[in-house]
Amino acid sequence: AQKVTQAQTEISVVEKEDVTLDCVYETRDTTYYLFWYKQPPSGELVFLIRRNSFDEQNEISGRYSWNFQKSTSSFNFTITASQVVDSAVYFCALSRESGGSYIPTFGRGTSLIVHP
Amino acid sequence: DAGITQSPRYKITETGRQVTLMCHQTWSHSYMFWYRQDLGHGLRLIYYSAAADITDKGEVPDGYVVSRSKTENFPLTLESATRSQTSVYFCASSESRGDIGETQYFGPGTRLLVL
Fold first, then answer.
1. Which residues contact A62 (CB under 8 A, 6 or more apart)?
2. Which pLDDT does position B96 carry in this prediction?
3. Shortest CB distance from A44 goes to which of B33, B48, B106?
4. Which residues of chain A have pLDDT under 70?
5. Per the CB < 8 Å rule, is B104 touching A104?
6. Beta-strand runs (E) in chain A
7. Shortest CA distance to B48 belongs to which of A25, A95, A104?
8. pLDDT under 70 in chain B at which residues?
9. Residue of B42, B88, B92 lying closest to A108 (CB–CB)
10. Cβ–Cβ below 8 Å for B104 and A31
11. What is the predicted pLDDT for the residue at A99?
């Protein structure tokens, strides 16, 4: 069975601090994808990034960066110089093949609160 | 470009009533999904569909029924609503090119309250 663990339920920081959201996953598959989604207070879910299991390169997009380490089954997300607009719930997800289809599994989410 | 829409956005119903939540996407995506979001549980998959007339159970299917007669629509029905089905429901869709890494695009959600 696959599993995604986001151990941090809630993180509170002050604006301009750096913050890392942890994501640890479990799967027996060699081929899988990992995702991060953002859910701001307005409620919609917004795609941020996806990474396949064969690509361990870290990725940076503006103030966002992602660190994928297969050795520790982790796909952590760092926000540099956080801003109030970063306040949201962030979900990590794992997608793998099952019987010709694929079923994604989401973590329980980490609520990030950025104070001015 | 409407993308993916859900209706109603808010619904209050009573225990035992039948409720149908609608989901419509304009991208002709093959895959569609229904999730429920509850505090402490994150997003849990209820049902998904790989194509028209093909549906399958997710993690928490009990008490729900789905159908997909057209590619663009994926309604979710609570045949006899219970209080435990009070939740926020999200519909999502994704393309399928045989690639398991397809990104899902989510609708705005439906807040359902069962009294």
1. none
2. 65
3. B106
4. 98-102
5. yes
6. 3-5, 10-14, 19-21, 24-26, 33-39, 46-52, 59-61, 64-69, 74-79, 88-98, 101-106, 110-115
7. A104
8. 1-2, 96-101
9. B42
10. no
11. 65
